[in-house]
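In practice, a research group might receive sequence data for several interacting partners and want a quick structural hypothesis before committing to experiments. The following worked case mirrors that situation: the sequences arrive first, and a predicted assembly follows.
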Amino acid sequence: MVNDGAPDIEVVARVLGGDGEAFGILIRRYEPGLLRFATRMLGNSDAAADAVAESLVRAYRHLAQCRDPGRLRSWLYRITGNRCRSHLARRHTNDISLSDVPAPALADSSDTWAVLERGEQVALVERALAALPAEKREAFVLKHVEGMSYEEMAAATGARIPTLKMRVHRAREALLAALEEVVR
Amino acid sequence: MSPIDQRLQEALDGERDPGELPVDLRESYALLSAAAQMLKAMPPVSVASRVMTEIRQNPAPVQSEGPAHRLMHWLGGGRAVTVRLRPVWTLALAAGLATVLLVPWSSSLPTPGVAQGIANFVGHFPGARSVEVVGSFNDWSRGALALNDDDHDGIWHANAVLPAGPHEYMFVVDGERWVSDPLADHYVDDGFGAGQQNSLVIVRPVSAQP
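A structural hypothesis for the assembly, expressed as tokens:
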């Protein structure tokens, strides 16, 4: 019996050895972040839940293809990112609807933010994020929401690190411009 | 939209202390940091039970099943007919292939059924300790089909009866390195992004052979 704190590589070995229930450990470990990532990419929690559920089942079916179980997290984000891209492609647009995710408390209440109610702040940020092209939106979310290093982002997206840095920088510029337009 | 100060980018990348930024950049830093913080809210949903139900209803094949058992299960029945021709790569590989084709392994393979054929897997991996094939035909399971290099010339080979049609596969070298077949007929995207490709073999049914 593998415990919840076991390293990914150990849990993966258990699952591949026939202990399908052990996959539940990986779901508990990564589902919240994957759902958040997909929600930010798709702008809709129902569509995100579908994308993550499909991705996790796909990951389970193809777990033997995970060439480096020590980097399972990046592999799961890659699969989920692909599902999100497919979903967006089916809609023939990068536009996403505003999320129904509740807002967290602000970590930093600067003066510029104080002029807006929290709900307005969240709506503003989500609208600015939704207006970004999918690649820049993905880069910003992986970097600043999921807290990945550029190396992890490269593994999760297949893009090169300089390309990812450029996407993050451009996303910051666009977000900052959109936010400053309103709050200043 | 105009480019933002490189010092701000560096601070946001964790490469510079934001406390050292000028006041205007510090405000921009706070604005973007607060925006990112807002996006960290966790969605109040879970798909865990849905996924586990799906997994329980359709469990994946067990990897720990004995290699011999898996191999016997996979090979099915039939007599050997080579249906896959590969270009000659090097003289050494040509020599190896000649040996492979001249040695009567085929007599040990079961007879392919009407909708089956035989795939030959050959790879040049000098210095490798082990080489095996995993693919769509064996659910990408390790330990199902090992290649042999009995004469230690670096040319590894195996053949097997497979259902007619396309099959994706990869070589696994020394138990950890996944390698596309440089001599594959075709390549297809592995479906996981990042532009990685699986090798593709198209097995023709014995009934289609001249």
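Before designing any experiment, note the following. Residues 102-184 of chain A form a domain with the Arc Repressor Mutant, subunit A fold (CATH 1.10.10.10). Residues 39 and 136 of chain A are 15 Å apart (CA to CA).
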